[in-house]
Amino acid sequence: MNFFGTSNNAYRLWLITAGLLAIAIGGYWIPQSGWAIPVLLVLWGGVVLFIISAGRRLSFQTADTLSTPLEQPVVDNRIIQIGFYLFLASFAIGWRQLWLTPRLAVHPSEAMIWTLFVLRLTQKKPLSESLSGTLKAFLALGLLGVFVAFIYQTAWDIILAEFRLFLVIIPVIHVTRAVVCNATQWRVSFLIIAIVTFYISLLGLIEYFAPEMVAPFSSFFADTNVIYSQPGFARADFTFWGGSIVNVFLAMMLVPIFGTATVERDSRWKLFLMITTVLCAVAVYVAGGRGSWLGAVGAVAIYVFLSPKLGWLKLVMFLVFFYYAVLYFVPSTAIDNIYAVSGAEGYYDSSALVRASRIRAGINLIKQNPYLGRGWGGSGWVHSDLIQIGANLGLLALFFFLYWYLSHIWRLYRLNSSIVWVWVYKRALIAGLAAALLSLSTQAIIVLPPLIIPLWFLVAVAERLLVLASSNAERNQAPLLL
Fold this sequence. Notes:
Elements: H1 11-29, H2 36-56, H3 60-66, H4 77-89, E1 98-101, E2 104-106, H5 108-122, H6 133-151, H7 156-167, H8 169-179, H9 183-209, H10 211-214, E3 227-230, E4 233-235, H11 247-263, H12 267-287, H13 290-305, H14 312-329, H15 332-335, H16 337-342, H17 350-368, H18 385-393, H19 395-413, H20 420-442, H21 449-469, H22 472-475
Antiparallel strand pairs: 1-2, 3-4
Helix pairs in contact: 1-2, 1-4, 4-5, 4-8, 5-8, 6-7, 6-19, 8-21, 9-11, 9-12, 11-12, 11-13, 11-20, 13-14, 13-20, 17-18, 18-19, 19-20, 19-21, 20-21
């Protein structure tokens, strides 16, 4: 099967499959052990080296050279490309991390992307492009935030726990630039994202609807306690991944996966992608996250609105349909949360009240320290990432971050291309980034690697789409995707 668009690269499919199996097997055997991550990384590295050696027919002498890339810069893009695909597959790992201190951990996706970035630096050719000026300015203020945090006597591991998840933007962007260079690599990347989403959604739904099926795998699935996020609504637990907070990941990937399905030419993959889209939508619903419900509905509405064949009338009909769907499926008490936030009498939603209280506390910290903030970790857990950035680093840093993030959405919106797949992904990425922005406004995900790193990936591929759309060479690749 010509999975990757070229006849001599089928071994990469075995690499991705082996990587996912290593994740699953390692997670089943040692899910709560501190040795889980090192074992998984060793498995990953061994599989990579073995398959690269088999695919390129390398000798043991050459394999030894590849094991010391810092001494001899012989790493080519193929090695980085395969590692990048495994990096995307690592999104399936979820909460499993290597804890260095009780407040600082390293996620496998972090280790992978930094490793790939170092390998990229060993190549003789320079990095293709520099980072944007606004991102550099934000990271510079982030570095200043380290010193401010020390002034406020914040523990070093708390500082590093937050700052590192913004520093990882650098390798994510540069490695994505090195790998996603044409439609074929774009397709493979999103097919892997779809496989990960299918895995998470399917296992989560099985755990929710048929818990007796997962009972024999108690080392992989924790005890599934029924959580009533609203009276009468039992939330799915997703214990194998780390909790129902996975709905943030599912909500931001829902529309991009659907977009992948619309441009896929292979009927088997198209069917798989459509099934994954449906499973993902159901998983978002049963996860019970109100912000993700709004994010998913808003993402679909944006995708419909941006369609050249769907005018305002169809958008209105779509919103009316969703309005009645929400009234039917969403617990009635969820609609009353707005009254809890506004202080209406007689309502007791403690979750909304606690979030509103944390957000108000974060705003007060911004008022007290509007210029430099209190440094990384200085504001605690605000439950709104945007306000937490402002409280930690000040309003100027928040402005640079928002400008950097929103500029990708704006540039995608202004993008005009005659290539169909580019036009589809333009709408899908705008929708996905918009859904993630809602999570940044109402959730606390900047301290969670399995959620924030996939978001940086979406931003990176949005940047790549702008470059590929303007490339004349990419037009020759367009037939790979409708």
